[in-house]
Amino acid sequence: MHPIVLAANQPADRFYRGGERIAAFRAGGADLAVVARPTTGLAIPEDWIGSLTTVFGESELGLTRLPSGELLRDAVEADPVAWLGLAHAAVRGCDPALLVKLLDAGQRLPVHAHPDVAFAEGMLGLAHGKTEAWIALAPATVHLAFARDVTAEQLARWVADQDTAAMLGAMHTLPMAAGDAVLVPAGLPHAIGEGALVVELQEPTDLSILLEWSGFAIDGAALGHLGLGFDVALAAVDRRGWSEDEVAALVRSRAGTVGPLLPGAEAFFRADRLHGGDGWEAGLAVAVVVAGHGEIVTDGAVTAVRSGETALVPHAAGDVALRGDLTVLLARPPAP
Q1: Which H or E run contains 296?
Q2: 196-223: per-residue pLDDT in tens?
Q3: Which keywords are on file for this protein (predicted)?
Q4: What is the DSSP letter of 110?
Q5: Domain coordinates in residue numbering, the chain
Q6: Which residues, in sequence order, are CB contacts of 179 under 8 Å at separation 6+?
Q7: What is the fold of 4-252?
Q8: What pTM did the predictor assign?
């Protein structure tokens, strides 16, 4: 087995705009900070990389297909040790414990939150919630966490009235520079701002509780509560007021960092920035080439890659080295 360069995997007709800069990124060489904001109404703002996860409520949408046409999910189920490694498979079976995306916010995303593991397990029978992280490829503004305590009654009223001004007015607003890494614990309300282009790491679910949907192409009143009803779903939202210092601690200014980008997040995922001459030990990995060109070198293969390409590296490929003038964002599941 060897590294596999993946084609784009973009679920269509999402409820928010974007996708132009994913296309520009995958074409290589574009200045992503100045690519024009969408004017076409394109609604393919996400690229699900190496995905064994489906869009919520779907049976296949979101899953990655290998160049052979086989679903990655089926390949992993047929040989989890080869793809994930013996130690990982012994603990998690066929569960990769990771989903990686490119996300191009052609408009500000709605205010929303994701359930944690305990809520997902108790209410939905799932093994994962949705803690996530963003690694910025272009600067943008984000809204993250409430700045003051919000009562359950206040939140329910804001959602019922779709009082976006009250929601955003109660949240921290902060700039995200290119290269920054932002950890978003499950439960924390957030909204990625227009113009953001990020590599997103997350637990492998598509669980979102919409607090806002007015003006977006989705019936949030019917679809925004995971089928649980808002009286239940809103209990998953962190209504605590976070201090400026607490929120700042979630944003790691990592523009020049080589090595780990998300210290403290290792229970959910691992992220590193690497260059030519760096490498990593055998294990399932997603490599996003964000600059330059070079090669992914394993025991049995040399795989040429360039800026804008994404590669899936199975455990059985062995230890990996990077060669050439390139920068890679490496996403891996938690260590077994």
Answers
A1: strand 285-297
A2: 999 999 999 999 999 999 999 999 999 9
A3: Kinase, Metal-binding, Transferase, Zinc
A4: P
A5: 4-252, 264-332
A6: 135, 136, 253, 254, 255, 256, 257
A7: Jelly Rolls (2.60.120)
A8: 0.95
